[in-house]
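Hey forum,

I'm writing up a methods section and want to include a predicted complex as supplementary material. The small molecule is magnesium ion. I've pasted the protein sequence and the SMILES. Can someone with a working setup run it? I'll credit the forum in the acknowledgements.
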Amino acid sequence: MKKVLSFDIDQTLNIAKTPIPDEIADLLKKCLDHFEICPISGQKFDQFLIQIVNRLEGATPEQLSHLHLFVAQGTQYYRFNKEKNDWELVYNYPLTDEQVTKISQTIEKSAKELGYWEEDKLKEGDEIIENRLSQVTFSALGQKAGTSEKYKWDPDYKKREAIVKKCKEYAPEFDYEIGGTTSINAITPGMNKEFGMTHLLEELKVDKKDVLYFGDMTQPGGNDYPVVQMGIDTITVRSHEDTAYALRGILGVI
Ligand SMILES: [Mg+2]
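Reply by user p_vandermeer:
Happy to help. Structure tokens for the complex are below, copy them as they are.
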């Protein structure tokens, strides 16, 4: 039997950017009694709390101790400390200050040259470029802008593709991924899910064959593909409904 169930988040456990639905929360809680549960995604720790942890109402500290959060593609790992009744950071592979500065300047310069630097539209105290430790994130309208406003900014990705193209010219040593509705994430190459999954195996002291992974972007070029390439058993889902279906099956045979 598998020891670890690992999950992409957006479109695998939820509708992108929203908290997991009741059914998934309920199934994950049940799974915590039998497996180590490891969500892994490019998002920050706060989002893991909002989208997953806060939805597991009634989960005991014992259950939470089997939940492992692989944040920012697994460049940060948090686990639940039962004694302290809180999450603790186990490791973190941040970008260096020089890398953060270079990426920030490159994105700002590229966006300004294209006329996409929307500083005047920011809400008070908000910022366009955010240092998320293991990645630098550009959010064209800041973090606090409304969803519909954000959606209208670049629905066909053309603006961000143009920014990424320029960034690639100015600082080709980094990878730039388009995400969300207004975002570009800059990372160092290789900081993808293979990095996170390799550390997961090490930290949980398990073998590849002990892991079952769920993701919606398992095709070549998709952000779940590195896991497939590692030879880890993978279930490709179209949405959280497929995941729920598979989890019911798994729980049904335990
Ligand atoms: Mg996904």
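Some notes you might quote in the supplement: Residues 107-187 form a domain with the Hypothetical Protein, Haloacid Dehalogenase-like Hydrolase; Chain: A; domain 2 fold (CATH 3.30.1240.20). The longest helix spans residues 97-114.
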